[in-house]
Design a protein that fits this description.
- The protein is α+β, with helices and mostly antiparallel strands.
- It folds into two domains: 187 residues, Roll (Pnp Oxidase, Chain A); 121 residues, no CATH class.
- The protein has 13 helices and 14 strands.
- It has a seven-stranded antiparallel β-sheet with strand order 3-2-6-9-10-5-4. The chain has a three-stranded antiparallel β-sheet with strand order 1-13-14, with no helix packed on it. A two-stranded antiparallel ribbon has the order 7-8.
- A hairpin with a 2-residue loop joins strand 4 and strand 5.
- The chain is elongated, with a radius of gyration of 28 Å.
- The structure holds flavin mononucleotide.
- Flavin mononucleotide binds next to strand 3 and helix 2.
Length: 333
């Protein structure tokens, strides 16, 4: 590991480490209004939500690293105590970048960035029509983290009203693929949360996963399973019983397809290409009956393919059965 103590670093280096390492960050496009009625629009990626009751979000209009000066958003918020925070979709990203230019306070940044202002219902700052997710907010507290160049200020805001585009709202929920948000990484890097990059992780909910300590060594020591595969297996509450394994094998034996597919290594490889883990396992099972020496690996590959697509029931049974039959073979020998 490279190691850095903060006391030895420049502000620019610290800023780079934080923005690369704490990422991807959601981006708040914040609309405020000055006492003179000038619209301000600026993106802030030091941003997140911090509770639902009351709904609290916070972002950081920091002091400039360059000269320690405070930003227009900060001044407007302190004066008016109101803002509208918008999510940034991929379609908006270049205009949002434009809104981050340091225009003087008398410049209307809706005009500069080309976004369309629409009136809010509960606060004075205008909303950005193009954003699919908008929150009208009031400032609860501004926390100043320091007076030096680059010091953060944390604007803690309460959400008063949500506006969500009908284009992204399906069956009473936001569809993350339709929302199509971007996140910020270090320097000029961004992340696009589009359909192909979104994935799901099973929530533990109230369940308590059995944990790594309860996974058998033959599963933990396998070179086939990834750490994520093991994590998924350890999230299950218990290992399958012998009875469940027997039933599992009976279903495999009765797989009709077995009658049509010859159980060869070549066919196993074909099914692994299409990730058809049932056929993979069925072939591996027949190869096991024929005492094929590679069968342990084939069963693990089938279990892995099932776990990869979240068929946990199939995956854990295949994985555990592999260990049991190896054991029984040893005893038999
Ligand atoms: C995507 C993006 C994220 C940004 N995040 C922050 C941030 O979290 N904090 C900050 O102070 N400046 C951030 N900036 C820079 C501000 O947007 C920029 O300083 C802005 O001009 C401030 O404008 P203002 O003086 O009108 O408030 C970010 C810029 C971009 C493009």
């Amino acid at each position: 590991m490279f190691e850095f103590e903060v006391k030895d670093l420049s502000i620019n280096k610290i800023s780079a480490l934080l923005t690369y390492g704490v990422s991807p960050r959601p981006i708040a496009l914040v609309s405020t209004i000055s006492q003179d009625g000038v619209n301000n629009l600026s993106p802030f990626s030091f941003f997140n939500a911090f509770g639902s009751n009351p709904p609290v979000v916070a972002f950081s209009p920091s002091r400039r690293v360059r000269d320690g000066s405070l930003k227009d958003t900060y001044h407007n918020l302190i004066e008016s105590k109101e803002c509208v925070i918008h999510a940034v979709s991929y379609a908006m990203v270049e205009q949002v970048n434009l809104a981050s230019c340091d225009y003087p306070p008398e410049v209307d940044e809706f005009i500069k960035s080309g976004f369309t202002p629409i009136e809010s219902d509960l606060v004075k700052p205008r909303r950005v029509m193009e954003s699919p997710f908008q929150m009208e907010c009031k400032l609860i507290q501004m926390v100043n983290c320091g007076d030096e160049f680059g010091a953060g200020n944390i604007a803690i805001c309460e959400v008063l009203k949500f506006h969500i585009s009908e284009k992204v709202y399906r069956d009473g929920k936001i569809d993350p693929a339709l929302l199509d948000l971007v996140g910020r990484n270090g320097a000029e890097y961004y992340t696009h949360a589009n359909k192909s990059s979104l994935f799901t992780v099973m929530k533990p909910g109230t369940k308590k996963g059995m944990g790594f300590d309860n996974l058998p060594d033959f599963i933990k020591d396998s070179s086939i399973y990834t750490a994520n595969n093991l994590g998924k297996m350890a999230l299950l509450e218990k290992l399958p019983t012998q009875e469940e394994l027997d039933d599992f094998i009976k279903t495999i034996e009765s797989l009709n397809e077995l009658e049509f597919v010859e159980a060869t290594e070549a066919n196993f490889v074909r099914f692994s290409d299409t990730r058809d883990y049932r056929q993979m396992f069925a072939i591996a099972y027949v190869l096991h009956l024929k005492n094929n020496p590679k069968v342990g690996k084939y069963i693990e590959l089938a279990a892995k393919a099932a776990i990869d697509v979240n068929d946990f029931d199939f995956g854990i049974k295949a994985a555990v059965w592999r260990g049991k039959f190896i054991e029984s073979r040893r005893i038999g020998n």
